[in-house]
Design goal:
This protein has 374 residues and is α+β, with helices and mostly antiparallel strands. It has a single domain, classed as q2cbj1_9rhob like domain (Jelly Rolls, Sandwich), CATH 2.60.120. The protein is 24% helix and 18% strand. It is built from nine helices and 14 strands. The strands form three sheets. It has an eight-stranded mixed beta sheet. Strands 6-11-8-9 form a four-stranded antiparallel beta sheet. The longest helix has 16 residues. The radius of gyration is 20 Å and the shape is globular.
Amino acid sequence: MNSPANGDREAFEAYCQDGVERALALGNRGPMRFDDDGRLARDIVNAYNEHGFYVFTGVLSQSEINELTREFDALLDNAPRSTEDELDSHGRPSRYGGYMTLSRRDAEGDLDAGDDAPMRVGLVSHPLMFMHSALCVYAHPDILRMVASIHGDDFVPFHESIFHKGAGEGPPTSWHQDGRTHWTEDGAVIEGRDGSGKKHGFNLSVSWSHCTPENGLWVVPGSQRQWRLAGGGSFPPISERIPEAVPMMLAPGDCGMVNRSSLHGSFPNRSPERRITMVMGYHSRESAIGTKTTNVHAFMRPIREGEPREYSEDYVLRRTRMIPLAIDARRQKYPDEEPYEYKGSFVGSAEWNDTTRAEISREGDEYWRRDITL
C-alpha cells in the first residue's frame, strides 16, 4: 500500500513537497478582491470554476481567530468521556456532547484501537447554535459578498460543522465527492464550466489553525466535472496518492472554497499541528428548491445512509433565515463594521435576540433539521 501510515516517510514527504509546488503554480490563492459592483474579481471566479477550489488568504482578523480558538477549546474541554457518557473528563455535564462525533481511534485511524485508546472528537456539528464566534463568522460581510458572487444574491445555506484533527492523531478521510444529486446519467456534472446551472454548492473551510499537506485537505483540480460513482464506479482508497492532487494550505484566518463535486480527502495527521476548520456551505436557490435527494446532514450528527427528502420552498425559506439572523448578530457585535445586506427571501424574524436564539435551538425544531444536502 502507498499510505503514509506504512512507514515510507521519505516518499510521503516528497509527495507533499511536489504537491505544494503544484498547488502554488495553479494561481488560485490570494486575498478576496471585488470589482466596483461588489462582485468577486472575475479572474478569481474563473480560477475557481477551472480548478474546483480557491484559497482566500487573510479573511479573518486575529481577534476573531482568537475568539474562535477560545470557544472551541472550551467546547473540547467539555466533550463527553465516551459516546455513552453524559459527563466530561472533569465530571461536569457535557452540554453539547450529542453534537460531537467521537471515536476511539489510534493515529492510523483504526476504529478497533481498543478501550485504552483515547476518545477523540473528530467533528462538531451545527456550531452556530452554541458558538457565538462561529455565528458571527458565518455573517462575515466579505464572505457573504463572495458567496453572492458565486451563487447569486438569493443564495441559501447548506450545513455547518467543525472538523478537528488533533496533533499527531487525526485519522484519514477517504477520497470522496460530496455532490450526489446534480449529475447526468453518465456522471457528467450539470453545472456549466462558467458556474451556471444546477450545482452542488461549495464547502468553505474557515481555518483557525495551520492546515498543512499532512493534516489538511487535498483536492484533485478539475475533478468536479465527472462523478466517480457513475456506472458502478468507486472512489480511490486514501492509501492511493493521486498524482494530480494538491494540498489546500491554510493559515489561521484563511478560507478554502471547494466545489462539493470535487474529489478530495486527507491523510492521517502525524504532524505536531492540529487542524481546525469550520465548514460553512452554501447553495444557489435554484439548485435547492424542488430537488429530491438523500439528506445526510439534517440530523444531530451526519449519518451515512441518510433519508430521502424533497426541498419545498417553505423548507428552504425557513432554513435560509439563519443568514439574516447571523448578520444581525454580527452587526451587534461589530457595530462599526458595515454589515452585509442579504437580498434573498426567508421566513421569520431577522432580529437576533433571546427569543430567536431560543427558536433556532427549540428541541425537535432546531434550525439544522432543514439542512440541505445536494
